[in-house]
Each structure stands twice: as structure tokens, then as C-alpha cells.
Specification:
This protein is of the alpha+beta class. It has three domains: 162 residues, 2-Layer Sandwich (Beta-Lactamase), CATH 3.30.450; 72 residues, Helix Hairpins; 146 residues, Histidine kinase-like ATPase, C-terminal domain (Heat Shock Protein 90). It contains ten helices and 13 strands. It has a six-stranded antiparallel beta sheet with strand order 3-2-1-6-5-4. Strands 8-10-11-13-12 form a five-stranded mixed beta sheet. Helix 5 packs antiparallel against helix 6, helix 6 packs across helix 10 and helix 8 packs antiparallel against helix 10. The longest helix has 69 residues.
């Protein structure tokens, strides 16, 4: 019951948020010469004044209630038909009606207000202890127009509130998710370090038969380490304003890139990785981040590319230009996925497949690294081949 009452009071309050209501009530009184006009929220159980203009001291203000079964609005709620009475004493239908007698009325007009796909909300009504000319086309059409206007405003307010609530809920969920990711990344670092150190100790003491198991532990730890790195980088990028680079004119970039390729080749021994690295000059960059980008792109290609297809890595760089490209064979990425692929938590693979598992942060982080370097990461997905390309100009550093 408390929830229902809160909703009803919110509906009543929404009328006060319509700036046009006071003017509408004033025009109603001026047009008809009647002294009391109101917008009422009418349900089966309640009649509540939601907007009021009282020039005759009727004594019922905003929030005031009448017993619904003592009102003509109760009948209008069921019939959905307006009621207009010029002079109660001369009206054969209402001269003996209980409502005019109870409230001392001689003139009355009430028009239904609809909202929510033609659902009854209440009425726009006016009363007076004296007769008034209301059964005219001009007055009735004016009331109908005002009732439609109020109903439209109520609909728009409700839609706006629903959209705002959805947006707030979405933003709160995003904030909580980002905070959770940041905390989780930090909390996983210590046990992961312990697992890695334990694996190294086991390798030194393990028999030949156990070496394979140790290798699996190390590879799993490396996989988890990559996920943790992605989580921490995501939290830095989103909560800390982006990546901070440590850029140098790196002569060892080729060696570092080859090491990334070799490490992933060891994790995917059944896959072919063709590498062509041609650097004719030192590349001014954050080498660790460029290697991280390659690792993310290459992991993505190995994970989502054709199982029996090769993956190609091409790196070209000189004094004025740097380009890194990763190509894999396989089915094209759907256009709707392509548009979102560099956003966080978006993955192009089948979530039901083992190789489709992941947080969906790798490509987002790769794109952020590209942006931090003043370059751009682009995607081209054709029927049999998908290519990620990072390009950046070489600027004096």
C-alpha cells in the first residue's frame, strides 16, 4: 500500500510540474465566468486536487480530496464522456443529482484527461454556485484541447523520468563496474605473483614427467596476468584520465616485439605466425605499451581467427612513420560489432566457445595505447580476413 500511495502522490505532483496548468485554469475561469477550476487525479478510490484556481472560496486546495463517489468525475471515469451543465436547477438529468446538492453547484463542466496510451488520468473541471454558459462548442472544444495538452505533458514527463532513471541506473552500474574492476585487478596481483613464483620453484625440482604440468601452470598464470594487466590498465584509462607514456627513441623495439611473438607462439604451438618486422630507425614510443598493443592484437587474432589459419604480423617504421598490422584468416566481424569493438567489455567471439572467454578489454586498451601515442587503431574485416592496423607519425620527442 505504501508503494501505491507514493506512486499516486507522485502522479498528483506531476501536474504541478506542468508550467501551463496555472494559465490553463485561469483561462478556464475567464472563459466560462466560473470561480473554481481544477485538475483532478481520479481513481476508483480517490479524487485528489492536483492543480487548483479558487476564486469563490470553495476551500479545496492542491492535495485536497473529495470522496470520489460524491463527484460527477466518478461517473466520467467510467464513461469517458465529458459533462457540461449550464444551470443545474433547469437540467433534467442533474437537477436531482446528489453532487450539485452536496456542494451547492449550479454550473459544472468536466472533461476527461487521458495518458499512457489512452488510460484515464483524471479530469479538467470547473464549478460555480451560479449558472454559467458552458454548453457551447467554443467552451467544450477549449476544455478538450486543454485536457489533451495536460495529458500530453503528463506523458512526456513520465517518459523523461523513465529515461533519466534508466540513464542514472546505467551510469551507476558503469561506475560500480569500473570500481570493481580496479579493486579486483589490485587484489589479484598478490596471489598471482605467488603462483608464478611457486611455478618457478616447481620447475627447478620437477621431474621430466611433471614439466608439462608446470608449463601449463605457467601459461595459465601468464594468461591471468594478462587479464589483470588489462583490468588495471582499464581502471587507469577510465578512472585516471588515460595512459601516461614513457616514450624513448627505442633501438630495442624490434627485439621486444619478436619476444612477444615468440611467447604467444609458445602458447599457441599449433598455429602459424608469420612476422615481418622492418625498422630502419629508432622509434620514439613507449616500447612496453607498443608491445602490449601487439600482444593484445595478436592474442585476439589467435583467439578469434580461423583455427587452421595463419596469423601475419607486419611492422614497418622509419624516421617519419610507424605502422603495426596484425591480420588473421576467418569469418568477417559483423558490422554492428565492428562499430563497438574498441569499446570496453565488447567481444567479437562466441561467448559459448572456450576461446571466446575474456573480459573484452584487450582491443579497448590497444585503442587507448594508440590514442596516447597520437596515432589510430583501425579495423578492416573482409569475407576471409580481418586486419587491425596501428599507424602513427614520428614526431620529435
Amino acid at each position: 500500500m505504501e508503494q501505491k500511495e507514493r506512486e499516486l502522490q507522485a502522479e498528483v505532483a506531476s501536474v504541478a510540474r506542468i508550467d501551463a496548468v496555472p494559465m490553463i485554469l485561469d483561462v478556464v475561469c475567464r472563459t466560462t465566468g466560473m470561480g473554481y477550476a481544477a485538475v483532478a487525479r481520479v481513481t476508483k478510490e480517490r479524487w485528489i486536487a492536483a492543480g487548483v484556481l479558487d476564486k469563490i472560496a470553495f476551500g479545496l486546495g492542491v492535495g485536497g480530496e473529495l470522496k470520489v463517489d460524491t463527484t460527477i468525475c466518478d461517473e466520467i471515469r467510467d464513461s469517458h464522456e465529458l459533462v457540461a451543465i449550464d444551470h443545474v436547477a433547469q437540467d433534467p438529468r442533474f437537477c436531482n443529482h446528489h453532487t450539485p446538492k452536496m456542494y451547492g453547484l449550479q454550473s459544472y463542466i468536466s472533461v476527461p484527461i487521458f495518458w499512457r496510451n489512452n488510460e484515464f488520468f483524471g479530469t479538467l473541471c470547473a464549478i460555480d454556485p451560479n449558472p454559467a454558459r458552458v454548453q457551447t462548442e467554443e467552451v467544450i472544444n477549449t476544455f478538450k484541447l486543454f485536457a489533451q495538452l495536460i495529458g500530453s505533458h503528463l506523458d512526456n514527463l513520465e517518459r523523461a523520468e523513465a529515461s533519466e532513471a534508466a540513464l542514472l541506473s546505467s551510469q551507476q552500474a558503469a561506475d560500480l563496474r569500473e570500481q570493481f574492476i580496479a579493486i579486483l585487478g589490485h587484489d589479484l596481483r598478490n596471489p598471482l605473483t605467488a603462483i608464478t613464483l611457486a611455478a618457478r620453484l616447481l620447475r627447478a625440482r620437477a621431474s621430466e614427467e611433471s614439466q608439462k604440468t608446470v608449463t601449463q601452470i605457467e601459461q595459465s598464470a601468464k594468461r591471468i596476468s594478462g587479464l589483470v594487466d588489462n583490468m588495471l590498465d582499464f581502471s587507469r584509462a577510465r578512472l585516471g584520465g588515460g595512459f601516461v607514456l614513457d616514450k624513448t627513441a627505442d633501438n630495442a623495439l624490434r627485439k621486444d616485439l619478436e619476444m612477444v611473438i615468440a611467447e604467444l607462439g609458445a602458447v599457441w604451438p599449433e598455429r602459424e605466425i608469420h612476422a615481418d618486422i622492418a625498422l630502419s630507425a629508432p622509434i620514439h614510443c613507449d616500447s612496453a605499451r607498443i608491445c602490449q598493443m601487439l600482444s593484445n592484437l595478436l592474442s585476439n587474432a589467435l583467439t578469434h581467427g580461423a583455427r587452421n589459419g595463419a596469423v601475419a604480423v607486419t611492422v614497418i617504421g622509419d624516421a617519419g612513420h610507424f605502422e603495426l598490422q596484425v591480420r588473421n584468416e576467418g569469418f568477417p566481424i559483423a558490422p554492428d560489432v565492428q562499430r563497438r569493438l574498441f569499446q570496453p567489455f565488447v567481444r567479437g567471439g562466441d561467448r559459448k566457445e572456450k576461446n571466446g572467454l575474456g573480459l573484452g578489454l584487450g582491443l579497448f586498451i590497444a585503442a587507448e595505447i594508440a590514442r596516447a601515442h597520437g596515432g589510430q587503431l583501425t579495423l578492416a574485416s573482409e569475407p576471409a580476413q580481418t586486419t587491425f592496423t596501428f599507424r602513427m607519425p614520428m614526431l620529435p620527442g
